[in-house]
């Protein structure tokens, strides 16, 4: 079974009455069956995203082979996406390994350089039917260990977003409209009017990073306002690690490892199902 790029997966999602796709961070292979169980039980397509750190830890090809195998056996349309990568060489490695979607993150660069580099990635990816995400503006919080200070947060402007999309033709654009990477306490404050104006100006799928800190009400409103890809990672990781801490503390050294991991995986499945339900 082939892996779908983002555009292909979004078409499947829309045909199944989903307004947006959840893109879920995979931190270890043990989580992978839990992802597919959630997708199967909700009749949802599945987008799995990998940080560069996780890809290097597990191996790009192992990830592709594992995801493709489960996508085929579970009959779940699946996209494998490299998230937040600023190194074009690593993006090429992911594409060569079989990733079906990539993100070039040039949000820390000046606009002109971000556009030039994004276009380079698009030129490479389009030859392989791989979708490309880019980012404009600086989203707060921490992503894969790299923190953005509160004073460095820059919201995406309508004018910049339109210019960026017009000059790159990117498949999807991550925008800074009030969410925060890594938030699992507190509540993000989405600037819905800004989001609506960017949606109208770009006519391009927009991406919401930092989906963990968004209330259900705000999430539904953001999806209705133009967000078509929602990144969720921290909430799953917190649940998985929390359950593992509980079970390992109570376990014995000669217990089967699966006994420690099954409750954690069940918690991940539950988080995915709850999030997917918001995208209908």
From TrEMBL:
Superkingdom per UniProt: Bacteria
Residues passing through the membrane, by range: none
Listed SUPFAM superfamilies: Aldolase
InterPro entries: Aldolase_TIM (IPR013785), Class_II_FBP_aldolase (IPR050246), FBA_II (IPR000771)
PROSITE patterns cross-referenced by the UniProt entry: ALDOLASE_CLASS_II_2 (PS00806)
Pfam families: F_bP_aldolase
PANTHER family: D-TAGATOSE-1,6-BISPHOSPHATE ALDOLASE, D-TAGATOSE-1,6-BISPHOSPHATE ALDOLASE SUBUNIT GATY-RELATED
Protein name: Class II fructose-bisphosphate aldolase
Source organism: Serratia proteamaculans
């Amino acid at each position: 079974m082939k892996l779908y790029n983002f555009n292909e997966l979004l078409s499947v999602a829309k045909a199944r009455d989903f307004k947006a796709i959840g893109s879920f961070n995979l931190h270890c292979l043990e989580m992978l069956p839990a992802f597919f169980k959630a997708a199967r039980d909700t009749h949802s397509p599945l987008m799995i995203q990998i940080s560069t750190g996780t890809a290097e830890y597990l191996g790009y090809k192992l990830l592709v082979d594992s995801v493709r195998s489960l996508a085929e056996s579970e009959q779940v349309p699946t996209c494998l996406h490299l998230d937040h990568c600023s190194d074009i060489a690593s993006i090429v490695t992911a594409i060569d390994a079989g990733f079906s979607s990539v993100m070039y993150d040039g949000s820390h660069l000046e606009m002109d350089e971000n556009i030039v580099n994004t276009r380079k990635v698009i030129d490479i990816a389009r030859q392989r039917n791989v979708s490309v995400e880019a980012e404009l503006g600086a989203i707060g919080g921490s992503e894969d260990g790299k923190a953005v200070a509160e004073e460095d947060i820059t919201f995406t402007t309508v004018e910049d977003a339109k210019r960026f999309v017009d000059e790159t033709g990117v498949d999807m654009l991550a925008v800074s409209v009030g969410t925060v990477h890594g938030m699992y306490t507190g509540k993000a404050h989405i600037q819905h009017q800004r989001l609506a104006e960017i949606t109208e100006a770009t006519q391009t799928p927009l991406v919401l990073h930092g989906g963990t800190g968004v209330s259900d009400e705000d999430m539904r409103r953001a999806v209705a306002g133009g967000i078509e890809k929602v990144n969720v990672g921290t909430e799953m990781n917190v649940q998985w690690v929390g359950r593992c801490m509980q079970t390992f503390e109570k376990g014995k050294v000669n217990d089967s490892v699966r006994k420690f991991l099954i409750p954690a995986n069940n918690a991940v499945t539950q988080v995915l199902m709850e999030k997917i339900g918001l995208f209908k």
